[in-house]
Write a structure and sequence with these properties.
The chain is α/β, with parallel strands linked by helices and 257 residues long. It is built from 8 helices and 9 strands.
Length: 257
């Protein structure tokens, strides 16, 4: 799908992977709507990106809020062609840790944001995408979801995170098949360790150890590398129903302590 003049929603668009994707899309001529919880930052980033970028406050875990946010985008832009789902949270907690049992709400919240949130945005936008005029290939829209290599290489304490991201991976082929007759593609990117605000919580020593585990290049991923892959997925019509690891060949092992 050609990106120029397309309407794109990027969730989690105020920072990290989402912001990088939004900036790259605008540079390719797209009109972008940023969804994020952080209203102040979202407005600032939309203004920085410019070129018609708008910010719409949205908690992806709340389907009613998402419905309203999507309606807002359609009212301003007329339609939606592409959705890049980057909104998500991440935290590691053992089920039985030194402070006792993890709260039941921890797992539910992780799944609600990362997995249900992704589903909510797809559910709220699909009626718009299927009504787009098809391009010469018969294509009407593209979904790009964001999972994590933790879907397969989950570490100790990541049961909730891995389950939420594994669910995103599992939806990929199913949704690609469901939307095939409508000319809508579905892809998922699985980032490895990326230089995002989430990684900023780690100290320098921990980051150095992590980088050494990446075969090549032995560093954190750059957000622009995620954005470049998202761009390629949109522009390559034969990419569909698949997940792509973006991790420098990193395979997280089991480090017993």
């Amino acid at each position: 799908m050609e990106i120029k003049d397309r309407i794109v929603i990027v969730t989690g668009g105020a920072s990290g992977l989402g912001r990088a994707a939004a900036e790259s899309l605008v540079n390719k001529g797209a009109k972008v709507a940023l969804f994020d919880l952080n209203a102040k930052l979202g407005e600032e980033i939309a203004a920085e990106i410019g070129q018609g970028t708008i910010f719409v406050p949205a908690n992806v875990a709340d389907h009613a809020v998402v419905d309203n946010a999507v309606a807002n985008v359609v009212s301003q832009f007329g339609t939606i062609h592409v959705v890049v789902n980057c909104a998500g949270i991440g935290k590691s907690l053992k089920i039985l840790g030194k402070d006792g049992l993890v709260s039941p709400g921890f797992f539910a919240n992780m799944v609600n944001v990362n997995l249900v949130g992704t589903f909510n945005v797809i559910r709220s936008t699909i009626s718009t995408l299927v009504n787009n005029a098809p391009n010469p290939e018969g294509e009407r829209g593209v979904y790009i979801n964001t999972a994590s290599i933790a879907a397969f290489d989950g570490q100790i304490g990541q049961a909730a995170y891995s389950a939420s991201k594994g669910g995103v991976v599992s939806m990929t082929l199913t949704l690609a098949r469901e939307f095939a007759n409508n000319g809508i593609r579905v892809m998922t990117i699985l980032p490895g360790v990326f230089d995002t605000p989430l990684m900023g919580r780690l100290n320098e020593q921990a980051l150095e150890r992590l980088c050494k585990q990446v075969p090549f290049p032995a560093r954190l991923g750059k957000v622009d590398e995620f954005a470049n892959l998202a761009i390629h997925i949109i522009e390559n019509p034969y990419l569909n129903g698949e997940f792509i690891r973006l991790d420098g060949a990193l395979r997280m092992g089991f480090g017993r302590k």
